[in-house]
Amino acid sequence: MIKVGDKLPAGSLQEFIEVEGEGCSLGPNSFDIDKATAGKTIAIFALPGAFTPTCSAQHVPGYVAQADALKAAGVDEIWCVSVNDAFVMGAWGRDQKTAGKVRMMADGSAAFTTAVGLVLDLTAKGFGVRSQRYSMLVKDGVVKALNVEAPGKFEVSDAATMLAQAKAA
Length: 169
Known about the structure:
Number of helices: 6
Helix content: 25-40%
Oligomer: single chain
Structural class: alpha+beta
Largest sheet: 7 strands, mixed
CATH class: Alpha Beta
Number of strands: 9
């Protein structure tokens, strides 16, 4: 499992772009993790799945509500990562009103999730391979804080914890 002090693994995440511009076409676009994190402070939170109860009722709304405070604390971008495709993440972002606040990053094949060692295997429940629930504060591609939830919990990966860590960094 990735730990504080480690560099994020090379790879890419996808994001559904609603409005064409800044070199991005309408629809799914792929972003190189190294390039996207270079010189930036990123609050990343990951969760088991789009449109799921805790993720939709608490996790994403918390980060949307705290987006301005996180940016005031030095966070350049907030990423929500889930093992879903970019179309699903785009639809979920519209539903959660994340535009301009949280980037909904798709890890459709779980490549990033596997590379950071935070896979949650829900195959027996019919959900396949997913991501564990966690958050991390990343500066210039290096993990500065990591908060991994115990199975079935939502206690340490929330926006309030991330905000405290961003202020302390």
